[in-house]
Structure formats: structure tokens, C-alpha cells
Amino acid sequence: MSEYGVGLIDLGPPEFSVTLRGRRHFVYGLSALSVFDLIKLHPEIQALMQQQFSAITPENLMKMGPVVALRIMAMGLLKRSGFTDEKKWLEAVNDGIRQLADLGMAEQIDLLDTVLTATMPQGKDPFIERLNHLKSLFNPGPQETSAPSTNSHASSDDVSLRTAPTHGVRPLDS
User: How crowded is residue 97: how many other Cβ atoms within 10 Å of its Cβ?
Assistant: First the structure.
């Protein structure tokens, strides 16, 4: 730990991985910076978020078009902090999109599911509740309502990581 709190080395390796074509890959999930990049490139995602955060599902992302889903997958496989130059970051994402486009649909769905799980490890409902709370801090007007949590194992106080789906995707061994 650094004198300023948690040091970068203290963050440790990613918790999730996915096996694609027999090779295991780390899945980092999307950081806030990655989400902002995604919204800049695809304004329709912001429109979806403004409707209701709970409308963001793998199915809705796939309906937006394969490029959006592929971009999310590529971003989730790349460590954003490894790129100081935004142009190089976007080139790496675009290269990833080209490579991921050749995967079969089942592998793409497994990967997208794992990226979303790594981005929201406690599940969608607690994530939405926390986003709505943050939104209310900056906009004290009427809050967006979200569906009640259906995850009986995770409460808003539960900060432990849940495991990834078992269909070809597994957490990294300790």
C-alpha cells in the first residue's frame, strides 16, 4: 500500500477470464473511462441509459448492432490504464473488434456476458441502485426507479465478487 492509500500494485490481477479458441484471456470489464469512450463513439448508448439504466442488457446491446457489442467485448479484454494515448487505445479496440468478429456467436455471448459480469460483479440491480444514488447526489430531482434486486445473495452492503457464469467462463485461480 502506498502512502496515498491503495497503490496500483495493490489492485491485483483481474478476477475473471474467458476461454476463446482454447486460450484463456483476462477480462477487465469496463472502467468509467471506457464507458465514456463508448458513449462518445456510440451516442445511442447514452440515449438508452437516459431511458433507464435497467434497459442495458446483452440483448439490447446486441440489438443496437454487432459493432457496439463487439466494441464492449474488445474494451473489456483490454486494460485501459495500459494506454496513455487515446488514439492507440482506440486502435487497439478496433483491432480487437476485427478479431472478435470472427468468433462464433456462442463465444461472443460468453465473452459479452463475462465483460458485463466483470463490470458489474454484484449484479445489475445493485449496480443500478448505486448509479441512481450517485445520480441523485448531483441531481436532487426525482430519482429513476429500478426493479428490485432479484439476487438473494447480494445486498447493497455485499461487496464480495460473485463468480462468472460457468459456460466456458471461469474466475482466475488464486
Answer: 18
Name the more confident of 136 and 111: 111
Convert the pLDDT of each residue in 80-100 to its tens digit.
888 889 899 999 999 999 999
HSE at residue 22, side-chain half, CA atoms within 13 A, is 0
Phi, psi of 25 (to 5 degrees): -125, 140
What torsion do the CA atoms of 149, 154, 158, 160 make, to the nearest 10 degrees? -130
pLDDT at 138 over 60: yes
The Cα-based distances of 173 to 14, 15, 50, 127, 156 in angstroms read 11, 8, 38, 25, 26
Mean pLDDT over each residue of the chain, to the nearest integer: 73
Question: What is the Cα–Cα distance from 119 to 105, expressed in whole angstroms?
Answer: 21
> For the chain, give me the number of helices (H) and strands (E)?
7, 3
